[in-house]
Amino acid sequence: MIAARPSAAQRAVPSDSLIVRALYVNRSAAQSPRRMRKLIAIADSTEINAFVIDMKDEFGLNYESKDPMVARNAGRGGRIPHLAELLDTLKAHDILAIARLVVFKDSVAARLNPDHVIHQPNGQPWHDKKGLAWVDPYDTTIWEYDTRVAEEMARMGFAEIQFDYIRFPEPYRSLPPQVFGDANGRTKPQALAQFFETACPRVRKLGARCTADIFGLVTTVPGALEVGQAWEPLSPVTDVLLPMVYPSLYPHGAFGIHRPNAEPYRVVYTAAARAHARDLKLGITSQAHVRPWLQAFTLGAPRYGAREVEEQKRAVYDAGYDSWTLWNPGSVYEPYLAGLERTTVSRRRIGGDGVRGGR
Fold this sequence. Notes:
- The protein starts with 20 loop residues before the first strand and ends with a strand.
- The chain contains ten helices and eleven strands.
- The protein has a single domain (21-356), classed as TIM Barrel (Alpha-Beta Barrel), CATH 3.20.20.
- Strands 1, 2, 3, 4, 5, 6, 7, 8 and 9 form a nine-stranded mixed beta sheet that branches. Strands 10-11 form a two-stranded antiparallel sheet.
- With 359 residues, the protein is α/β, with parallel strands linked by helices.
């Protein structure tokens, strides 16, 4: 059955009737009217009905803030021209506007707020392998800053605020130890969950959904990753979880698969099915609560194209979900168009038993 495309004005916690099939739109693409016209044309002619737009990344804001606390951390990466008009255009084309907001990997806020960063034991700012400083995930001042960014996005008309890099940095042995501010007895997973417990009510009050990007491994690892992400603490406090189940990022032998990148269906199905099972144990039954990120890029062999996208989509449906988002770092999706359907049709299966989900 053909599902109605979600109106860009739809501003409620997702129900089972909401199907979201999105494209990631990076900072530079969002700033280019020419590129945005091409992406809108893709949505008009396919099942794509949402854009995840970089509004705050690790290099600052992609819009002009009216909040002084936010504006001072804007950075120098440019701004989306005529943002209000762009949002109106997306609404007219029934494209759901989703704001991507990078949280703790924020080099601009780290540089401008040195008292609120992760430190080394010698008191100097800690830097990751790319030389970027991170703000402290335990720091409630940083929580307030990012929540205010999210509130601005909601007031502008974004239907969903998608928090990314909602995690601690990897503790590589080759780098100095990470020293945080007052954890006040909280573990990393507790701190991340409390961030959402603080931010989400304020986002929802303004009519937007509160969602989170997480590592794909979170769906299958029993406890918490070293970066603090764990399924059971995060799932109940977010409206949607978006695990990044890119087959190329799974190690050889994962799930008993010698070359995970060569078997996209098996990887994505296993990860999504585990997420489904864990949600059911938590009493979370909504098929809209998990929306996997799918791989629309090539990293190693084989080269990814339309067939690999189709296989990943099929895995999502067989695991019991209907929604997904494609990630291409350059926001170039033309090579994958043959893997997209022309209309937004529910393909979800219940429990992988071949029974179509009702609509």
